[in-house]
């Protein structure tokens, strides 16, 4: 029987990433994601996904220079953002602003320089809109800060604490890429028509906006808030499980065992133990929840997913909830552009079939109705 939503259908071959939900593996170009987060920065990992190799010293410096140059918002893009309705959600702002970037310089085929530009622009768009809506002046990007540090600086107005920047960088590395998900598929479908990279990215952003794909981990935030106020993780979690409530941040529709992204994030946070109360609370909550889940639901193998620790990080750095999905988008731009670049190397337009399930009717039937 045919599955809805193309589930189980192979749509493309890729060498960018492997998502193995049965064994709990996530590989970036063959490398385990845990090893990547231990040894490489956001910029180096982005370069790896685009080029298939890590940058040397001169290449690293060139990439940083290109990112710095492309972080600056031109006056026309600022004007576009300023004229958008005040009530427009931030994902729609990003989609519209990126769409306005589409000029004749973005043709077929896409280039890595274009990918770098779009990756550099998204954090600046987020920061510009966020500070304008808060009545604060926009801060120009700082060339001395790395990609994630600069993002936090432009939003908050101060250089971030090292522990916060490292935690967010780890999260953003882990969300750079995740196989043929809905937004990546949307980007590749658009690119398959030989449309430009901006159009493909706009398609992906529109797809990410949907709550079934890029939804913010607000449920996890609520759980951590409740536990913080009660001061007793076991009491709160046990009562929820007795009432049959779903424990937010545990279980994943793809990973049937541990989420490798959650494991990598947890390992980084363990090194920061004692440096932030919310990160410590998240670690204690996970230990308690996993033990209680095994007690209440034996054999279900319910573990933390990446959203759980993402929520703890966002809470620790005091990031507003409206910034969660946009921040996810800022990192995933790398994966989207890597897939579009790959699509362009051996392109074939996507043209799946549909199965008609309606009746056969005559003109007389239609006219009668």
Automatic annotation (TrEMBL):
<dbReference type="InterPro" id="IPR016142">
    <property type="entry name" value="Citrate_synth-like_lrg_a-sub"/>
</dbReference>
<comment type="similarity">
    <text>Belongs to the citrate synthase family.</text>
</comment>
<dbReference type="InterPro" id="IPR016143">
    <property type="entry name" value="Citrate_synth-like_sm_a-sub"/>
</dbReference>
<keyword id="KW-0808">Transferase</keyword>
<dbReference type="InterPro" id="IPR002020">
    <property type="entry name" value="Citrate_synthase"/>
</dbReference>
<comment type="pathway">
    <text>Carbohydrate metabolism; tricarboxylic acid cycle.</text>
</comment>
<dbReference type="InterPro" id="IPR036969">
    <property type="entry name" value="Citrate_synthase_sf"/>
</dbReference>
<dbReference type="Pfam" id="PF00285">
    <property type="entry name" value="Citrate_synt"/>
</dbReference>
<protein>
    <recommendedName>
        <fullName>Citrate synthase</fullName>
    </recommendedName>
</protein>
<dbReference type="InterPro" id="IPR024176">
    <property type="entry name" value="Citrate_synthase_bac-typ"/>
</dbReference>
<dbReference type="InterPro" id="IPR019810">
    <property type="entry name" value="Citrate_synthase_AS"/>
</dbReference>
């Amino acid at each position: 029987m045919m599955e809805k939503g193309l589930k189980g259908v192979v749509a493309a071959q890729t060498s960018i990433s492997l998502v193995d939900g049965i064994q709990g593996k996530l590989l970036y170009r063959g490398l385990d994601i845990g090893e990547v987060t231990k040894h490489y920065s956001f910029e180096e990992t982005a370069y790896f996904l685009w080029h298939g190799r890590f940058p040397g010293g001169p290449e690293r410096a060139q990439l940083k220079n290109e990112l710095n140059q492309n972080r600056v918002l031109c006056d026309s893009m600022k004007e576009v953002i300023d004229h958008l309705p005040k009530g427009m959600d931030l994902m729609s702002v990003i989609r519209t602003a990126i769409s306005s970037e589409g000029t004749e310089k973005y043709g077929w085929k896409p280039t890595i320089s274009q990918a770098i530009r779009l990756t550099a622009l998204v954090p600046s768009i987020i920061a510009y809109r966020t500070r304008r809506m808060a009545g604060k002046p926009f801060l120009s990007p700082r060339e001395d800060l790395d990609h994630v540090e600069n993002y936090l600086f432009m939003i908050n107005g101060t250089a971030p604490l090292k522990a916060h920047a490292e935690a967010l960088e780890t999260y953003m590395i882990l969300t750079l890429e995740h196989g043929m998900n809905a937004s990546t598929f949307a980007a590749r479908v658009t690119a398959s028509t030989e449309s430009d990279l901006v159009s493909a990215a706009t398609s992906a952003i529109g797809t990410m906006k949907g709550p079934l794909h890029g939804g913010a981990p607000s449920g996890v935030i609520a759980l951590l808030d409740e536990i913080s106020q009660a001061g007793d993780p076991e009491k709160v979690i046990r009562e929820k499980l007795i009432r049959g409530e779903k424990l937010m941040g545990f279980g994943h529709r793809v990973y049937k065992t541990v989420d490798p992204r959650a494991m990598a994030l947890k390992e980084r946070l363990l090194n920061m133990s004692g440096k932030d109360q919310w990160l410590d609370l998240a670690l204690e909550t996970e230990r308690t929840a996993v033990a209680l889940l095994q007690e209440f639901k034996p054999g279900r193998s319910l573990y933390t997913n990446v959203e759980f620790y993402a929520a703890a990080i966002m809470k620790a750095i005091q990031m507003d909830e409206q910034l969660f999905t946009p921040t996810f988008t800022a990192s995933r731009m790398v994966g989207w552009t890597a897939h579009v670049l790959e699509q362009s190397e051996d392109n074939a337009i996507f043209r799946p079939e549909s199965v008609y399930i309606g009746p056969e009717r005559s003109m007389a039937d239609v006219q009668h109705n």
